[in-house]
Design a protein that fits this description.
With about 400 residues, this protein is of the alpha+beta class. It has twelve helices and nine strands. The protein has a nine-stranded mixed beta sheet with strand order 5-6-4-7-3-2-8-1-9, with helices on both faces. Helix 2 packs antiparallel against helix 11. The longest helix is centred in the C-terminal third of the chain and has 44 residues. It is elongated, with a radius of gyration of 31 Å.
Length: about 400
């Protein structure tokens, strides 16, 4: 490189211009940072929620869930958010439900809430299933370990912390964890599953330790819910009405309705995020254009001197675009990093507040979203600077130097 050309190198002049005007540079970087934060954070949330809904749809193995009347909201909380709950009704109703036209399978479940376990800092939902009739839990277990579980063993949801020796302590007794379920994005991730025989054994041991349960006041074979699978030609709403008509003391949750409601809420969120991102990108473009135009206007004589020193018109354009590129890159990287620090640690909290399931994209997906957000936010800087760059390149050096005299 020729030493005489070095002071006029585009990169050095651009860096020095930004360094000499820290406030202006900070404004440019902040605007792009906010844009990148919104683009990356919003896209991660949207894709996580879409993945969560897909995962939940895949894991919803039952068409209907029958619970005691008045407990539909609590049952939905167990399914979607893993909110510990307990409610009971007579097991004899399983046969009545199974005999309803359109029903092909009906399997009971029993809920038990643990208020003090060493596996979690929050209460854990314990769910017992009937191996003889179950068609939901055991297929998940088969995916993980290729078989069923034995009495005395438990299966942990994805978010349950298991000890190093693959056990979990419940009511001062350790139980071997036969499998850990894959991510479902539903309440099952914070639940522990076992056979009904294991739950009876757990309760007996807990009673010996002095624990008491709400279900102690219920008949011994009480259940909390019945999962129902329908014939492919059956109408879920019609079957639900038939079950309700046969027994007014029951409520029926329809999985299609739950998923449709979640899909609707997710679509509204996506429209909001996309609209906000587009508006913010346009606003950022206008703000950056105004800032660059004002900056170039203030520096007319500076650019005129560069022309006198030998800088071409193309050189001036490259200097302005390089400044915008440096500010855009710094802002984009800062915004993406800030979004990652906010979205990743608090994604579960955000999901709960939105009432939607969430499964974070894999490393490849995250990298793709980061690169896309980087390109879109970075592009705002140079695009905004184009007008100012060409404007200053067309200015006449002589008249610019004489301005103000």
């Amino acid at each position: 490189m020729n030493h005489n050309d070095y002071p006029l190198s585009t990169g050095r002049l651009s860096r020095e211009n930004l360094r000499r005007k820290p406030f202006r540079a900070a404004c440019l970087i902040t605007v792009v940072c906010m844009l990148a934060f919104t683009l990356f954070g919003g896209s991660i949330l949207v894709f996580s929620l879409q993945n969560g809904l897909k995962s939940m749809s895949k894991r919803f193995g039952a068409d209907l869930m029958v619970v005691p009347a008045g407990y539909a909201a609590k049952a939905e909380g167990v399914l979607l958010r893993g909110e510990p709950s307990f409610f009971y009704f007579d097991r004899e109703l399983v046969q009545q439900i199974a005999a309803t036209e359109g029903v092909t399978q009906a399997s009971p479940q029993c809920f038990l809430t643990s208020l003090s376990t060493e596996c979690c800092d929050v209460p854990v939902q314990l769910i017992a299933f009937d191996p003889a009739t179950d068609f939901v839990i055991q297929p998940w277990i088969a995916e993980t370990r290729g078989g069923s579980i034995a009495d005395g063993e438990v299966v942990a949801g994805y978010d349950i912390i298991v000890r190093a020796n693959k056990t979990i302590k419940l009511f001062n007794h350790e139980y071997p964890v036969a499998a850990r379920l894959s991510k479902t994005a539903a309440g099952f991730d914070t639940s522990i599953f076992m056979t009904r025989h294991t739950m009876d054994l757990l309760k007996d041991r807990a009673h010996q330790e002095g624990y008491a349960f709400i279900s102690d006041n219920e008949p011994e074979d009480s259940i909390s819910a019945v999962l129902v699978q329908l014939d492919q030609e059956a109408n879920p709403q019609s079957v639900a009405r038939a079950i309700k008509r046969n027994n007014q003391d029951l409520d029926v949750l329809i999985s299609q309705g739950i998923l449709a409601a979640l899909a609707g809420a997710l679509q509204n969120f996506i429209v909001y995020i996309n609209s906000f991102s587009v508006i913010l990108w346009i606003v950022a473009l206008f703000i950056l254009t105004a800032v660059f135009s004002g900056s170039v206007h203030e520096r007319k004589k500076e650019f005129a001197i560069l022309r006198i020193l030998g800088a071409s018109r193309k050189k001036l354009i490259r200097i302005v675009l390089a400044e915008s590129a440096l500010a855009g890159l710094a802002g984009s990287l800062s915004g993406i990093a800030a979004a990652g620090l906010v979205v990743f640690p608090f994604s579960t909290y955000i999901s709960v507040k939105l009432g939607l399931p969430s499964v974070r994209p894999g490393p490849g997906g995250i990298l793709t979203l980061a690169l896309l957000s980087l390109v879109l936010s970075f592009a705002a800087g140079p695009l905004a600077a184009v007008y100012a760059a060409f404007k200053i390149s067309r200015a006449e050096t002589y008249f610019t130097m004489r301005e103000g005299e």
